Amino acid sequence: MRNTKKVKTKQKKSAMQKGQTPFILVMLALPILQWLVFFLYVNINTILLAFKDARTGDWSLVNFKDFWEQLTSPYGEIGIAVLNTARYFVLGLVTAMLCMWVAYFFYKKIFGHRFFRIVFYLPAVISSVAMVTAYKSIIIPGGPLDKLVSLFGVSLPPEGLLANSATATYAIMGYCVLTGFTTNVLLFSSAMSRIPLEVLESAALEGCGPTREFFSLIVPMMWSTISSVVILAFTSILSTSGPILLFTNGYYDTTTISFWIFSKVYGNGAIGGVAASYNLVSCVGLCFTLVSVPIILGIRKLMNKVPDVEY
């Protein structure tokens, strides 16, 4: 009798699995078809452009040679763009970590936390054009920043911070820091609000201070949110950029990879980019994709090694 019941149970399971297979195939058919049509079909010509000579139309690796020369040359646009993109990426990670501290202070309801919550989120509400204009008026020669640093015997460059190759990128990075405490603060604040108060109260009774509470309790219990933010940051590792178009239009060595691609495709004016540069842009995009995908998968695997705390 027991063997008969086991056989019937196995038959039911196999029948259920057979019924699930067509359902899974039907549900996967639409996204697969969408990927084939709207990604592969649309981008297949773009991928092929990377292997064609723009002047002759023949199959060639000349685009990869040009890409390598511009990447390794100290005066190449691509090399400068990669360096600036790396700066903005590191800055984004540091700002994200600072957002955790800001969210923690809001979570602990420090004095004026409601006011500062609004202040930190204002850059997401106010137009970026208005924010950039206000920031420019602060850092121009003779502006508030110039008067402030003059008290310490320092003066800004006469041409301004944004018109100097040595300071332009760092000036834009300062703007990114000031306006970077928006979305991540909300994400971390929401994750902290889910932590049971009983856990923190018990830790306080054991003499746990704020620093240890943050690193030993808060961070592990919101690790899923932290890992999601880090993984999302790495998915845009090569497209990280500041508002280059609004500040310098890519001049004074401020270009990034995403802005370089934009300028080559659409041009700095209203007439669009140069058709001969499309092949190089396709080559650059293909190379950077091949580099970024393993990095993203590796970071995702590394972040998932840390077990989530269930509560």
Structure write-up:
There is one protein chain. Helices cover 70% and strands 0% of the residues. The protein contains 14 helices and no strands. It has helices spanning 2-49, 62-72, 77-107, 113-125, 128-139, 144-150, 168-178, 183-193, 197-205, 210-221, 223-235, 244-247, 257-266, 278-304.
CA-atom Rg in angstroms: 26 Å
Instruction: Please bin the fraction of helical residues.
Output: over 70%
The main sheet comes to: none
SS-based class = mainly alpha
What's the shape?
flat
The succession of helices and strands, N to C, reads HHHHHHHHHHHHHH
Q: Count the strands?
A: 0
Task: Give the rounded overall mean pLDDT.
Answer: 84
Bin the strand percentage: under 5%
Q: What's the helix count?
A: 14
Please report the distance between the alpha carbons of the first and last residues: 43 Å
Q: Segments where pLDDT lies below 50 for 5+ residues?
A: none
